[in-house]
Design a protein that fits this description.
By secondary structure, this protein is an alpha/beta fold. It contains 14 helices and five strands. A five-stranded mixed β-sheet has the order 1-2-3-4-5, covered by helices on one side. Helix 1 runs antiparallel to helix 11, helix 2 packs across helix 11 and helix 9 packs antiparallel against helix 11.
């Protein structure tokens, strides 16, 4: 590493500390949000929740504001088993397929409407997939092909399919929602041959707050839990969710949501080893309520420690840059991977060192 000229550091200290401490809490919050998004991509808790008809019903009724939703007969909701789909679809463990009849009944009250298939994709990446429209076009084609081969099509007409992407990434969903948008412009006579398909996106982070105040909608409470700002907020929302699902027929959904809360929500705030493996929402609510005060104190303390570490690392980068110029990539990498003790040691050396070699020397 080449030597770089030593520069005076008369004005460095106060400026460095001021800039770093102003950034402390913003950096700490960002780290927690990123940690949650990464964890969610490897968890099947969401799939478990949306394997229950009540969850699908609340999702459609509460967040798909289109007239045909009012024509659905929710008593006919039926999860599509593996026998209905191809091997390609069966390998997609994060996708869920339901079917439901449109609300058309005989004089005896029997549902006679046609089936509508709801194709639910759980998309828990940090950003949107620019080719999602093409992916969905492929999945729907495979589903139609399997329905034909398995003898499910009786009237020589294919059922309607509603593709819905459930997304909880940090950045807003920005991908094209129609296949046509991804195809190069062509003459009007040729445009008639382009495939046409649109999908629906529920971007959890961008759902208006007013849409979450739904008295009997469990998914509205789920989204609010995703946005919870601390242990007390979680306790309040889990209690509300348990109340909404208190009826005996919702027992299995309560159990699925208890797992979801433990794996995806409490991990942000609860200390390691203090999350008890309880099986029902009322039990989880009781556990959280008993620990709100201690968890809040520990969570705040952890946030302060994380903020202090980030601030010290940032101060070291600023000090080294002022004294020796722009930092090489390998130095940036060392700082990013360092422990708190290493940061402190390097900071002390940087005061008197004549170059970067002396700062990062192991002797």
């Amino acid at each position: 590493m080449p030597k770089q000229a030593k520069a005076p550091m008369d004005q460095a200290g106060a400026a460095l500390e001021s800039v770093a401490m102003c950034r402390k809490m913003r950096i700490s919050t960002h780290r927690r949000m990123v940690g949650l998004a990464v964890m969610s991509t490897h968890d099947n808790a969401y799939k478990n929740v949306f394997s229950h008809p009540r969850a699908v019903k609340d999702l459609l009724r509460g967040f798909v504001h289109e007239d045909w939703v009012q024509q659905l007969d929710y008593s006919t909701l039926e999860k599509v088993s593996g026998s209905y789909v191809s091997d390609d679809l069966r390998d997609r463990e994060d996708d869920i397929i339901w079917r439901i009849r449109m609300r058309t009944k005989t004089s005896q009250g029997k549902a006679t409407g046609e089936w509508l298939y709801v194709y639910l994709l759980l998309e828990f990446q940090s950003s949107s997939d620019p080719w999602m429209a093409v992916r969905i076009l492929t999945y729907i084609g495979l589903l139609y092909q399997d329905l034909i081969k398995s003898g499910q099509i009786k009237a020589r007409k294919l059922p309607a399919i509603f593709p819905l992407v459930l997304y909880n990434g940090e950045s807003p969903w920005s991908a094209a929602r129609e296949v046509e948008e991804l195809i190069e412009p062509v003459p009007q006579s040729l445009a008639a041959y382009r495939p046409r398909l649109r999908y629906f996106v529920m971007d959890e982070g961008r759902v208006p707050k007013a849409s979450l105040h739904q008295e009997d909608n469990a998914i509205a409470s789920l989204v609010q839990l995703e946005r919870s700002a601390g242990p007390q907020d979680i306790a309040n929302m889990v209690g509300e969710l348990a109340h909404k699902l208190r009826a005996p027929q919702n027992r299995e959904l309560r159990r699925a949501l208890a797992v979801w809360v433990r794996r995806l929500v409490l991990r942000r705030f609860a200390p390691e080893g203090e999350i008890i493996e309880l099986e029902d929402l009322p039990e989880v609510h009781h556990m959280i309520s008993e620990r709100v005060e201690s968890w809040t104190q520990q969570w705040l303390q952890q946030g302060k420690l994380e903020g202090k570490f980030e601030a010290e690392a940032d101060m070291l980068r600023r000090l080294l840059t002022r004294r020796f110029g722009p930092l090489p990539p390998e130095v940036q990498a060392q700082i990013n991977a360092a422990s708190a003790q290493q940061i402190e040691a390097w900071f002390d050396r940087s005061v008197d060192a004549s170059d970067l070699v002396q700062v990062f020397s192991s002797h």
